[in-house]
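batch job 7 of whatever, protein = Tetratricopeptide repeat protein 39B
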Amino acid sequence: MLKLVQKSLVELEGTKDENENYMDDWCLGKLLQGMCYRCVNKPKEAMESLLNAVNRSKDLVQDFYLAPFACAEVGFLHLEEGDLDQAKEFLNKARKDYESHMLQSRLHFRIHSALQEIKHRRKQAKEASKLEKQLAKRSKNGVNNNNTPSPDVDSISISLEESSLARQDSNASFETAPEYSSEDERDLGETDPDSHPKETTVRETTV
């Protein structure tokens, strides 16, 4: 696919003077080239191709959707490389600076998903930094970290204790008291057979 795109870009240069949609075709070629480089794990080449498409998108004639798509692809690439600030900048630019273009809803869906990923990664980094500071503080105060459970372990222990208590409460059951036997009747004296208790006495016991 990459070779086909590169070949098409070379052939496109020969139609530069006579092709009214040259810039549209060129930006499309650069966008596809950048995406191909990204797929074969060549981020540097991918970034160069995509930025070329973004920078020249102001000269588009009719395929205006190429500009936000190229801009978003730059953001996706920055996200893959771990540059969250640049990723967020280009993704927001693709979402806010371009309106009423083809496939806008689909692109915005992808952008929203990427922005959520950025938010999730930043939250994880913040929690990891907080935990690291807590461990460093304990180490500074001379606390043996090997014998002291971390905050996460404490939370897990509390949850397990609460779960155990809940299981104990849920184990309460009801047993049926045994009925009188014939021997019991003889011990108590003659009784009327019809006077035997018909209702079962229930008492609550705890297992």
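notes: The beta strands are 172-176, 202-206.
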